[in-house]
Amino acid sequence: MPVKKRNLTNPHLPQLEKALAQVYGWAPNETLRAALQAVVTDKARRLLFDEMTYCRVAAQSPGELHSVAEEIALGETSFFREPEQFRALWRMVLPELIEKRADTKRLRLWSAGCSTGEEPFSLAMILEDLLGEASDWRIEILAVDLRSKALLHASQGRYHPLQLRNLDPALRDRFFHGSQSPDAPPGELDRRLRRNIRLRHANLYDPHLWQHLPGPFDVIVCSNVLTHMHYTAVQQTTARIQQALAPGGYLLVGSVEVGLVNQARLRPSQALPRGFFHRPE
């Protein structure tokens, strides 16, 4: 008689997955489920709960649910993560916007899902290079993430040399202080790049966030975020991005997320790498 495989999935996880989907817009998947199981096991043990009780408590408690979300939220990132996209930002998109905004001398950018800060600091490096000592320009970069620990890391502006290994050496030498050898202590990011960045703790699926944004934005980078959301969350988030984007502005998503963006005023840019959408003026 064949041996029936044991189902190792916690039968109480679905109620917690449902709560995370409702509050954060996340789509259940095997990667998320594995991370969730590990967090439930650890937290239940530390709180002296059985896993069934912990899942019920966490699903009903906003504070505990947020604690779970902070633990399992994905935070993979790097400087200039998709190089072709960032080259296009540097050579085409931002120079175009600088020319168009020459009368107001103001640019607003948003890193929606900034993790430990590499993405917004990459944007800051580009703008520092393009505008240099143009002190009459007002640059605002909003950087939002769900994880408090990630935002704390970003606020410190210190990165280990291994985190800088894919960064262009000229940029690394220009914007980081400290030794670049692999066993060196973390290098500190030049404070000039931090002056225009506003870090904010927020949930992108929370409608209150969108009601108090300092927009509209000329560029919104929401890269490798939509792919983790369920259908309704994707539609609501992209519709809100469409509203938050200034006419003539650009949305940048991960190259694998292009098919998730389906809004009338967000049009794929044929002249730019995959992942760019333009809102017509």
UniProtKB/TrEMBL annotation:
Keyword set includes Methyltransferase: yes
Record SMART domains: MeTrc
Domain CheR-type methyltransferase span(s) in chain numbering: 1-257
InterPro entries, A to Z: Bact_Chemotaxis_MeTrfase, CheR_C, CheR_MeTrfase, SAM-dependent_MTases_sf
Coiled coil start-end: none
GO BP annotations listed: methylation
MF-aspect GO terms: S-adenosylmethionine-dependent methyltransferase activity
Pfam families: CheR
Keywords, in A-Z order: Methyltransferase, S-adenosyl-L-methionine, Transferase
PANTHER family: CHEMOTAXIS PROTEIN METHYLTRANSFERASE (PTHR24422)
Record protein name field: Methylase of chemotaxis methyl-accepting protein
Species of origin: Chloracidobacterium thermophilum (strain B)
Phylogenetic placement of the source organism: Bacteria, Pseudomonadati, Acidobacteriota, Terriglobia, Terriglobales
